[in-house]
């Protein structure tokens, strides 16, 4: 159902845990992707794009070889496969939060292993065999057995492994299995990657850049909100100084003489500190509103 | 539980596949409808309205006879039942997307039937018997048996039917059953219909018109977004010319001299083309924000 | 996992029916709370706060005794437990709507009991034994047996109880069991409560006040929307008079001479009446947009 | 996928509420039917049978016309469609219990309609239009409007209908909608039906008779259990007289002299009365065991 | 819907975790109970019995007062409520297994509390306040605060409680919360209880005794299986000696001369040891079959 | 939680698609295994066994190395990993049916690839890289690229692969993706495997043999049923000749003179042919009953 053509972009979308978050992200960027439970070829409301759902682990390889023009996958799997692809941009988003994920070295709470050097002669279970071996080599540790783990890695120690290398967001699943983290091998986020040849085709390059810009605009807007407030002329300068310099605020006269409306964009994270300060500076009618996209 | 009164509007809501989309639409229009799994009489936050959930197939008949003052149903079923009702407005919304649905004539991929004329002496299964018979008459085809299908129409060919007339959005269920579409009998969208007598009652007529206006305002806003951007005086004219003429943009001075904020409403579909162009014309701080309603 | 410290706030969140609505409310206020199905200690994106999920029934007691610095619970359970806590603010929100809940006295449809006095010698089943006994005392009714009901209170009459005291939002579950309401004992909404000692600690007091302000700002915004409209100079005064006085509207010149944009905040409830009036006064391009927070 | 051949039987299975019960019944008869959620052509472990899932409403017509050789459907739909088919046997089984279903005439609890004659000039909603009209004719009632109901028939009265004709097992759904039953139009059970021509083909006729025999053997066994008990020679006659005459009991000597084991088949319904009686007659080691099939 | 009559038995069934296991148990005893999700009055296939679903906690009280003639509840709640009822029989069955549940005293893994005496001055959270207080009194411990816990008792320590008294089957939920068990207050199983007056009515007493006998026969059969084996005359005595003495085995001649069939009932638990032994003693054709009921 | 000891058996159970079928199989063999959703260490009702859930892919390696004493996995994965383990017995059971699974070579319906030789220069996607390479070597095909597929292998052709090697039961998923099977690489069933050293330990060897015998007895019984019938003396010989020779039938006198009961075990598959024949030979009261285990 896919066909390599000069006037069509083939886009790989990550199947699995990021699936819903990815379609939500594209939707906000203006691309409606519909995934049917019966097909791995989602439809997209842009006739110049064909999509396919693929596991993040195999995305980079297919992009490198040109079966896909571009795709989304994790930095970890780009590294693990060593694929030669162009990284168009980083996209920090996830199933739940907005935190990067980490591949960590973890051992039982009561293990004697304290650092990489202690792994000599031990056995590690992991889904990321290459990354683990590179880590051991970099730390000059030899005689370590690294087993590919087909799943449930965090329950393998202590019987089936002395240590594991596993991906984690908050560490809570490791703690629940009475494991402790002793090192971080790799911090990983999602990347939008492209085939190098595809970027030499002007049509494809332009399309890839546009998608990247819009996805970034959406993520950029997610931590931001609009803020509108009413101030009297006498307080205007004080308040303008207080507002974060993210955007220059709009100043508009109100229907009531001597009053102005300020309209600006701020980090959502500072709102809970900023609003009380604005109230102290006599701002009234403080309104926060949501944004869809923000292009710097 | 329903009672015909001059000072109360009885509104029929479509039960089934459009149920959730309909209550979401009304919610955005300001009407909160709560459907209990135990009752077909939803509550609505307007004491002047009584609601009932009914199948789309029987809505038009009950509106024609005045048991309902107004209701939502498909154009197809208005036609199928031949009910004499007033069509207040068209509302293009659906379970997933915003595309009209189509009733199509479909046959097995390897069938010899290529057009209506080839149906002579054949057997058609369909839920829309009337529509199918009118189509055959219009095409001057006789000797066709039309069976009412109680469900699963798309698996009836080739054993139980030579062709089917079935509703489809994307055609994917037909393709999965190895059927091909050879003609379209009817394109259908949702309609807000009213009883003709009810429209002679000023209270009911006003209420029906108001609901129609608000529902249209919501659907109108759905494909639109607000856009705010900052421009320098020198670029103002170029950018104003570029902006689609949907609404006249607001121009407001920024706190920094020589800069202006533009605020306008555009089609969401053009945003992904428009933003790159605006950036080239030196616009900065481009922010897109969502709308609830838009009344032209 | 919790520890009483002077520089950390311990916050109790209501487990159960209000759980999802509460995290949604905090999210809008800028606090991301993640509840894992495996733990009653949610994470929150503020390192100065520790949270715990507890049943609303036991919240007030734990706040009174200082195991929690603050928490959310119903007015009914504060009363029922008689806990000595500070009520920081009322927060009217619920699982579905925005209506207060009521504890009512209900009896079978065909019961002879018409008022509190008729309860003499009868038997009441309820989850709120204290509230029921205070009600009986206030009505000077004696010789009533009040049974604690472990659940399914509304099916107890007539065999297991003559009357019940039960919480209800719409009364529909009572009606379905053929019970009628004969009195209301208590109308209840959610309260944000704090330990009195904690409020003497300046760090905790400031934090509690800030959370209260932000939660109220979110609820405040929920029934409101932003409204933008374009008007000609000649209609400006008429329209300004028509707009509700909730906020002073912003008046900004449009790019087209003689036209102005008005921007204001109104109650969502009046929008469905207001928009038709504004259209009659020649307003064009009426746009409604959503708000996140509103601080008066 | 189906093909009419002399050496293959085409069997129609009822899709919907009886689906799971039907495959369970066939499984006990030795036919493993696997239904995939993606296909209406179940597989069956008999290469001489092809199956298809179809709605009970259309089964009889397709059997009459020979598209199916045989199938299972309700007596009601055979009557309603007037199809000319051979009824091979009655199979009393259902979604839950083993009771026949009834089509009843029901009216609001407070309706004045007491019998068929009172329907004059009224309006009836029903899914079984033909059955209702035949009932009215048989009762010599004219001027009744009979509307085909597309669903939720039991909530139609009093506003959308004065009475309904609806199928019910226990009447509880009718009672919940405050309707009362005033007459029964038809008592219905499942029937195994066959095409008349197919029964002239010896291969098909033999196969149909065998399926019927095995299905009946399963249903026959369902209300029965095996009973084993130990008795002393002196009590043998008394106990043999007490045992129901369903089957002649087996009498076998025990390893202990003077003792015998009795083995028999009895109605499960009598077991709860029979066992206490057997104990009084000195039976020991009474064991009840399950049966799969019972061929009289 | 319930009514006290001399010729009808009112039976209380435990709502909640034991619900499905209870109806399965009654079904095997010959009583088909159908529970509708909309009603707490299940139907039962015995016109002389009316049932109601009630929480185990309130069963004993309602039986004591005669609102129920009999019911099933836990030994723990009979003790906790101190209800004066007749215990007809013990029924050891549960949601999963066949093990009694235990109410235990548990403390954090690293707590200093080692026994009841260490609870002096501490705080206990529990759903079983009465049982806990009686335990403390019996151990002569004073100055302990016992809080009624509304749920999630096992996460209360160490912040909200120093110790808990909680029900457990395997202790796994306690271990997952890093608690250790230091004492057992009560071992509890299900009991079939009856009102003392009801047992003076011959009709009710007989019915209650019969239900008890049949329920016990089902539970009795659950851990047992039937065993059939073929032996030659020469091995008969050896094998008869080996067979457990639960029942006297039946000895029947086979169609082949010199061979006998043995038929007996054994504990399922010994089958996995017994079968290899029987094979060594030359038994052939060893068949195990299931039982429904076993009356000793 | 696992510990290698001489008096304890460590048993690996396959996690995933066979999980439920495996615990059902062990339950029938007398071993109750309880799997908690929170733990991969199920409990088993034999204190001499410890269990762990592991993916079938890694079972053989862990058994080979002695971390597990024994376990259940597929023949395919034993081959794929080349693990040196003892195969105790074959156990033919599955998620749904009782058919072996096959690893097949499949290509698009319209592909030119007809046999292994045509794969030269092509690309294969598969989860079983080793098996595929061995197959290619055996067929003397070179220059084939074999990609490890992380999932959804059947949608890879034609764009991401020219052919696939995939596991299938009925081929329906392949057909739905318009692929055709052109060769079978391996037919696979479940095997109960053991570590070679463990089999030298008499305790472990005996336990492993016993488990194997019981599991086989259960599977052996699954396709069989017991059959009881009554015959008159004159028909006895005819009927005994007709009965399949699986087991020698038991012949017992009935209470009625001149009648005998026959009791035997037959293949369920022949019952639907056998019963009609028995009836023709005057057998009456034919009863079929279920078996739990059958040891030949």
Describe the structure.
The structure is a homohexamer of 296-residue chains. Chain A has 296 residues and is an alpha/beta fold. Chain A is 28% helix and 33% strand. In chain A, the strands form four sheets. Chain A has a five-stranded mixed beta sheet with strand order 4-1-5-12-6, with helices on both faces. A five-stranded mixed beta sheet of chain A has the order 9-8-10-7-11. In chain A, β2 (33-34) and β3 form a beta hairpin. Chains A and B meet through α6, β14, β15 and β17 of A and β13, α8 and β16 of B. β17 (293-295) of chain D pairs antiparallel with β16 of chain F.
Q: Which properties best describe this structure?
A:
alpha/beta; 17 strands; 296 residues; five-stranded mixed β-sheet; homohexamer
Radius of gyration of chain A: 24 Å
- Catalogue the unreliable spans of chain A: none
What percent strand of chain A? Answer: 25-35%
Mass-distribution shape of chain A: flat
Q: Going across the biggest sheet of chain A, name each strand in turn.
A: 4-1-5-12-6
- Element order, helices and strands of chain A? EHEEEHEHEEEHEEHEEHEHEEHEE
Helical content of chain A stands at 25-40%
Give me the count of strands of chain A: 17
Q: Give the number of helices of chain A.
A: 8
**Most extensive interface, chain pair and sizes:** A-B, 33 and 29 residues
Which structural category fits the helices and strands of chain A?
A: alpha/beta
In quaternary terms, these chains amount to: homohexamer
Ends apart, CA distance between termini of chain A: 38 Å
Question: Mind describing the biggest β-sheet of chain A?
Answer: 5 strands, mixed
Give the overall pLDDT of chain A as a whole number.
89
């Amino acid at each position: 159902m896919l066909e390599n053509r000069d006037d069509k972009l083939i886009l790989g979308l990550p199947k699995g845990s990021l699936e819903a978050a990815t379609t939500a992200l594209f939707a906000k960027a203006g691309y409606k992707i519909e995934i049917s439970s019966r097909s791995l070829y989602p439809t997209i409301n842009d006739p110049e794009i064909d999509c396919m759902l693929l596991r993040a682990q195999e995305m980079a390889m297919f992009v490198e070889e040109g079966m896909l023009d571009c795709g989304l996958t994790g930095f970890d799997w780009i590294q693990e496969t060593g694929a030669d692809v162009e990284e168009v941009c980083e996209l920090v988003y996830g199933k739940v939060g907005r935190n990067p994920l980490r591949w960590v070295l973890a051992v039982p709470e009561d293990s004697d292993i304290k650092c990489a050097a202690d792994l000599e002669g031990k056995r590690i279970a992991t889904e990321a065999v290459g990354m683990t071996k590179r880590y051991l080599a970099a730390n000059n540790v030899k005689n370590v057995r690294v087993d590919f783990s087909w799943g449930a890695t965090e329950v393998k120690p202590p019987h089936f492994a002395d240590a594991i290398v596993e991906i984690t967001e908050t560490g809570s699943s490791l703690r629940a299995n009475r494991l402790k983290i002793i090192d971080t091998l790799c911090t990983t986020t999602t990347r939008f990657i492209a085939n190098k040849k595809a970027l030499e085709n002007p049509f494809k390059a332009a399309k890839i850049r546009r998608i990247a810009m819009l996805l970034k605009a959406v993520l950029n807007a997610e931590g931001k909100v609009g803020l509108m407030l009413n101030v009297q002329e006498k307080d205007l300068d004080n308040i303008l100084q207080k507002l974060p310099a993210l955007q220059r605020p709009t100043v508009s006269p109100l229907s009531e003489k001597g009053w102005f409306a300020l309209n600006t964009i701020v980090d959502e994270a500072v709102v809970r500190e900023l609003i009380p300060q604005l109230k102290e500076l006599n701002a009234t009618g403080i309104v926060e509103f949501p944004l869809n996209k923000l292009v710097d």
